[in-house]
Amino acid sequence: MNLKNNISGKVVVITGASSGLGEITARHLASLGANVVLGARRENRLQDISNEINQKGNGKAIFVKTDVTKKEEVQSLVDKAVTEFGKLDVMLNNAGLMSIAPMSETKVDEWDRMIDINVKGVLYGIAAALPVFQKQENGHFINLSSVAGVKVFSPGGTVYSGTKYAVRAISEGLRHEVGGKIRTTTIEPGAIDSELKHGSSHKESSDFVREFYKSAIPSDSIARTIAFAIEQPADVDVNEIVIRPTVQDF
To answer: Which residue in 3, 91, 107, 235 is a FRET match for 70, CA 20 to 30 A apart?
Structure first.
């Protein structure tokens, strides 16, 4: 089998697509012939990325300005994919926020924001795409967790880790409920070069994160990992992948 042909023509919705992992993955999948539907809050970035993808003449790109904390906007993103392309093959719940700070700082607003984006944003993506997948009797959820969802990120990452553990639990429960015709993959990146490292307002924690991310590997490593999961035959469900720099020890 030419695995490229198992991506070509597939319709992939990507949240958090205006930068970092989402942007690089959109470009990579489109280069393999996928039609990508991009969602994020920065509409000008989505326009630029879509234009560049379309100019290359492989897969097609369209976009919808999307805040994943708003259920109706995530629904509109999925609806646009189905209206434009007549189907949805992959829902990539990628949007995320990492605000690192000790619990003693009680940054409750940042806790709320991480829960809204990292957990509820994933749930809204599932709620929008699942009825489409059930009607089609096929589909693929890919949810971005983190190595912080495998081991608590310390110091300062307690709440962030809590949200990423939640993504793993939701993904595994979803697999049990809908597996058979609908695939579910959880990707757990380590230090990957993206905007995620800029999410901390606490200076000491931000300094720690920036130092930690000096060993980060490029975003395209995640794009290739996501492509690997998508390109497998329909009877192969890649459930969970942890990927991190070789020098990262947790």
So the answer is: 107
